[in-house]
Amino acid sequence: MAQQLWGGRFGDAEGKTNECLAKLNCSLPLDSRFYAEDIDGSIAYAEALARAGLITDKDAADIGAALEVVRREWRDGSIKFLSSDEDVHTVNERRLTELIGDVGKRLHTGRSRNDQVITDMKLWLRRGIRETLAGLRAVIEASVAQAKQNLGTLMPGYTHLQRAQPVQFSHWMLSHAFALQADCQRLLELKERANLLPMGSGALAGNPLGVDREWLAKRLNFAGVTPNSMHAVGDRDFVVDFIYCCSLASLHLSRLAEDLILYATKEFDFIKIADGFSTGSSLMPQKRNPDSLELVRGISGSICASLSGIMMTIKGTPTTYNKDLQFDKQYAFDAFDRLQDALTVVEGVIKTMQLNRERMESALSPDMLATDWAYYLVRKGVPFRQAHHYIGEVVAYAEKHDLELNEIPLGELQKICKEFNVDIAQVSDYGVNVEKYDVTGGTATKSVKQQLKTLQNFIEEL
Ligand code: ARG
């Protein structure tokens, strides 16, 4: 049986790690995911050792070549694990030593798994961020395509789930896309913030052997080095940040899912979710359930649970590294994987959903123009607060006489406010009113086109 990395002090039979601890201690099922990053970090570290004169250039080259062999073994699945392998770092170092003997044992000089594991995690984060951005980009792209294709389609806009004002379907669609754009921006900011190299922090006190951290940082594409070794080895803020970014993105997908679920009901019937993203009922033959989107809604609960999980894990750990921190990977990878699933499903749903334009437009009703009626009076010089009150009376009149706003005789309107005139009839057209909202960010076609351009430029450059 191979020796544990730290086995020297634990010589006798009674000192053998209890099986249940060995099982719990082993992080291999999680950290195998960044075997490649672990190898990249180790190759660079061997070069740094050679630069510091701690090993020869030939040693560094041999270590590099042997680690490439180990990489291939991971890749083709031929890598074997021993019961003494605690984690990915142990496996790589053991295999290295099996391949090149004593030279391999020099690699860990001045290094600890404490600075090694966060270096790996930060290297993995680049991949995590890149793939999450790609998933977000795909959903934004699908939303932009739907918005572009359906420009000019009107629908009721809601607040409190009550019909509020007419808007363009595209405006609604892009409201979700902009939330996802902000998620991308948050991830890009995190990429910059997390880009400091922890390697060279050792177990906690730093490196006493002259390893050039600045050189290592450049070698591994970091913008700089972490400024305090004790902080560096216990710092998991970048993991919390990443899971927070995933949580927020999942909340955005969940809210989008909720809108779509509602709009797909027979009561709304604004959209039809494609067969490929719907399921049936084992009992009720007529059912068509939006399970895909309900799962997306559910996934966000689980990602937010990972966020609390990592925060609760960190809370209460004393300064520097403690084994509790090993769980960071479980939370980060789970959040990442689940978000990927949700993004893929939402992209598919958006791409394949069908709009029921007639239903959307026939769901509009004249009362939704009450605000525009108030603006009509404002344009005639009536103070807004006063105009709001008059239109309130008009709405009450309509309700009392079971009429729509535009069915009230002009004479009756003039009894409420003398500024009403025949031109009030023009305020009855939904399309004309929507086009008045042409400020930046408004629902007029001009503004929606601007929004489309903003998002298209953004995803092109992403
Ligand atoms: N597997 C460990 C982790 O994921 C690596 C660091 C181990 N460090 C230690 N001092 N035991 O956190």
TrEMBL record:
Q: Does the keyword Lyase apply?
A: yes
Q: What are the record keywords, sorted?
A: Lyase
Q: Name one Pfam family in it.
A: ASL_C2
Task: Cite the GO molecular-function annotations of the record.
Answer: lyase activity
**Locate the Fumarate lyase N-terminal domain: which residues?**
13-303
The Argininosuccinate lyase C-terminal domain sits at 368-432
Domain of life according to the entry: Eukaryota
Q: Which family does it belong to?
A: Belongs to the lyase 1 family. Argininosuccinate lyase subfamily.
> Could you identify this protein by its name?
Argininosuccinate lyase
Species whose genome carries this gene: Bactrocera dorsalis
